[in-house]
Structure formats: C-alpha cells, structure tokens
Specification:
382 residues, Urease, subunit C, domain 1, TIM Barrel, 9-stranded parallel β-sheet, 6-stranded mixed β-sheet, 10 helices, 26% helix, globular
C-alpha cells in the first residue's frame, strides 16, 4: 500500500484537507481520513496539492525528438520528459507525413505501448491529418494531405486501428462523411481542425458525430458576424469540446478567457501541441521533416506559420491561472476533460476509488514536485 498523506486532495472539483490517498495495485484504493491507514509506504505531501495527473491529447515532440521520427526512442524520450512536467498519460500526435512514414510511426507507437517505460503512459495515437484542407494546412506539408476515404485510412493505419484514439479532419473535404461514419462506429474521437468550413457545414459535421475541435482558433475559419465560421459553430454547439494552447502565443489571453466563459472547464482540454524544441531553447529544429525556427519561444516554419509550441502542461496551468482562471477549473481542463474527450474518463482524470493511480504533487507555486504513474513514482524534484 502507498499512502499519500498531508496534502490538499483535488477531488470532485474541490479540495479535501485531512485526507490520505491510498494506492494499491496501480489503482487508487481509497481516500480516507488521515491516519486511518498506517501500514504502507508513505509519501509526505504536506504543504502540497495532490492532483490527478495531467493528460495531453495533442503533442508532437520534445528534446529534439519527433513522433514523426517513427522510432521508439522518440516516444520513450517524450514519455520521460512530459512526466517531469506533471503529465501522466498522452497521445503521441503524428503530423501529416508520407504514407510510409505514418505507417512506420504507427509501428513504433504500438511497440512503445507494450514496453515498461519510466514515464507517462502512452494511451494511443492522435492522427493530425492527413485528411485536412490545404487552405488551412498551417505547418502541415501539403504534398502529403490526402482525400479522405475508408480505404485510404485503413492503408494508413494498417494493423494498428486499435491504437487510434483521436483523429483531426477537415469535414468539408470530399468523401469525408463515409470516413466519419466508419470512425464513429469504432469509437474513435474525431476532431474538426485545419478546416476552411463554413458555419453550416461545421454544424452538419457535428450531427455526424464529430464532437471536438483541434487547437481552437488556430487553422480554422474565424468568427465573423455574417459568417460565423468554424469558430462560431464550435462556440454555438454545447456538445462540442475544444483544445486550447495556452502558451500566450497561439491565442491572446482575452480569447482564452472568452472561450472559457462560453464553454466552461468541462468542455476545454489544455494541450501543448509541443514540437521537438520543447525542453530546449531558441534555435533551428525540424517537425515532420520541415525546418522550424524557434525565436522568443515561438516556433515557426520559414513561411511564418506557427509550427506547434514549446509548451509543457505545468506551464499551461500557470499561464491560465495567471490570466484569471481558477486553479480548480484549470486542473479540470488538464485532467478530467481530456480523459472524457478520448473516452478514458471511467478510469483516468480523477482521484477516486478504482481510478488509475496517476497523480501529480504540486507546490504552492504550482511547480511539479512528484509524478506518479500507475502507482509508481516516475519523477521527483526533492
């Protein structure tokens, strides 16, 4: 038995004081009054916040490693790195790359998922493309964008359909409805993104079973009072969730607050969209085979388009609190909401009985002190 004692426990959106979290067999066994159980290894959390581990459903790389490298080394490096920043599970996110490179990447992620890595858990894969609109390609390579079809999708993922948890598509592209129907039947979370959608087409796509939006505001049609676009449709549909990159570069603080006021914490997942420069400084890097230049913390390709971020989820937390969002709601955006978007909220994203023992301890400055994944300590800063 592992006993986490002395901290403020984040449970059901509120703080519990005077309670211990008991961990057994990689699960949260119980939350009990302090001192009720003394038989086990003790983690002293006095003066700390005891929170569910962060979940990142959109991340491309870190420490010069890229998901699109198609290697287990890249995935393992990311898993260890993000755990140092409070992330306990994540979806490696593949750029729009060649068919052969995507297939190699899928193989690497599948193998990494079976390996015991001292870091964040790899839950599956997020395919950001290749079924996107070239007009909103952002930093995606246009030559690898494909016409959506079930046949092409099956060829792309091969024998690894079971690990695809999330996919970004542009719902206005020809042939997309057939693919959406196929993915909905297989319980894959579908997200609208890199889209030139009108308001009406976006609303139609939501009726098909698309219920999420990729890096909201970015790479989609903006809000206009006569044509509300994808941004307007997303804000106008209560069932649709969204991602926000809160690096204060991709989205202005006022726009972050506006999205939060309309949607609330239960409909927003904070993501990093981090690329291989994460954890490093300014300089020249690559993302999906393209050169990316990082200056003053902003990552851009040579044409000037933003190319992911260098954000970590602990920094995303601090930024959102700094712009006026409550700590409790920001934690929800980092934990329970992303878990619910990809359908793992029955065992991840909360501190509750029977849930995975994915826990992060934060100090009063919201810095990560310790990270626990499946009941095992994978990072400690003390």
């Amino acid at each position: 038995m592992l006993i986490i004692t002395g901290g403020k426990v984040f449970k059901d959106g509120k703080w519990l004081c005077g309670y211990d979290v008991l961990v057994e067999n990689n699960k949260i066994h119980d939350i009990v009054p302090s001192g009720e159980c003394t038989d086990g290894e003790v983690i002293d959390a006095k003066g700390l916040y005891v929170c569910p581990g962060f979940i990142d459903i959109h991340i491309h790389g870190a420490l010069r490693h890229d998901v699109a490298d198609g290697t287990m080394e890249a995935i393992e490096t990311m898993a260890k790195f993000v755990s140092q920043h409070g992330t306990t599970s994540f979806l490696p996110t593949n750029m729009t790359t060649s068919m052969s490179n995507t297939q190699r990447t899928m193989d690497a992620i599948a193998k990494a998922m079976k390996k015991d890595i001292k870091g964040a858990e790899i839950m599956g894969v997020h395919l950001e493309g290749p079924f996107l609109n070239p007009l909103k390609k952002g930093a995606q390579e246009e030559e690898h964008i494909l016409k959506p079809s079930v046949k092409t999708y099956k060829e792309l993922v091969g024998s690894h359909e079971d690990i695809v948890k999330h996919i970004t598509i542009a719902p206005e592209m020809e042939g997309v409805k057939e693919l959406v129907d196929y993915l909905v039947d297989r319980h894959v979370s579908i997200s609208v993104g890199h889209t030139n959608c009108t308001y009406s087409r976006c609303m139609e796509a939501f009726s098909w079973g698309i219920h999420h939006s990729t890096h909201f505001y970015n790479a989609m049609t903006g809000l206009n009072h006569r044509e509300p676009g994808a941004v307007g449709a997303i804000l106008d549909n209560d069932d649709v969730t969204l991602e926000l990159i809160s690096d204060l570069i991709h989205v202005h603080p006022a726009a972050l607050r506006l999205a939060y006021r309309v949607k609330g914490a239960q409909k927003i997942a904070l993501i990093t969209d981090a690329m291989p420069a994460a954890g490093l400084g300014d300089g020249e890097y690559t993302l999906g085979g393209q050169k990316v230049f990082v200056k003053d913390g902003a990552a851009r390709i040579k044409e000037g388009n933003l190319a992911g971020s260098v954000l970590t989820l602990d920094k995303a937390l601090v930024n959102m609190v700094d712009i006026g969002v409550s700590l409790e709601d920001v934690l929800t955006m980092l934990t329970h909401t992303p878990a619910s978007i990809i359908g793992v909220d029955d065992h991840k994203g909360l501190i509750d009985r029977g849930y995975d023992a994915d826990i992060v301890l934060l100090d009063r400055n919201l810095s990560v002190v310790e990270t626990i994944v499946q009941g095992k300590k994978v990072f400690s800063n003390r």
